[in-house]
Write a structure and sequence with these properties.
Residues 3-146 form the N-acetyltransferase domain. The protein is of the alpha+beta class. It is built from three helices and seven strands, in the order βαβββαβαββ.
Length: 149
């Protein structure tokens, strides 16, 4: 597997984000609302297997110290292989390189596998923030990144 940077305009990123949003709407009974699919200010990474992007995740700066993980997704046929965990580690490294001390994220209460991944990787629950305030299905997590020596 290869993890590589991709622009928001990449057709494989767009296809993965569309699949992620479709899966979220199915999981939450259509409660997710209207999310903008890709954003130019998100730095995307793609997990590539056999020349095909099978997973993605993005990093968006909230402020100078904090980056937010966005659009984490692995195609169902590729789950259970550690791809999401490797993608998460690569996104944390990207956040560190960009000077972020903290990485945060939002996910849904109806996504126990995602919550399990984040918790097992050192993310701790935080109060719901930003656009997620008031959404009863949102849960947020954060992780403080190691300080450079």
């Amino acid at each position: 597997m290869l993890i590589e940077s991709r622009p928001a305009t990449d057709p494989e990123i767009a296809a993965l984000v569309t699949a992620q949003q479709r899966e979220l709407r199915a999981a939450d009974g259509g409660l997710d609302g209207q999310a903008t699919l890709t954003h130019d200010d998100i730095h995307y990474l793609a997990a590539v297997v056999g020349g095909r992007a099978v997973g993605c995740g993005g990093l968006q700066a909230l402020d100078g110290d904090t980056g937010e993980l966005k659009r984490m997704y692995v195609r169902p046929a590729y789950r259970g292989r550690g791809i999401a965990r490797q993608l998460l580690a690569a996104l944390e490294e990207l956040a560190f390189q960009r000077g972020h001390a903290v990485v945060c994220l939002e996910t849904g209460t109806y996504l126990p596998a995602a919550i399990g991944l984040y918790s097992s990787c050192g993310y701790e629950p935080i109060p719901v923030y930003g656009e997620y305030v008031g959404n009863p299905y949102s849960v947020c997590f954060a992780k403080r990144l190691p300080v450079a020596a």
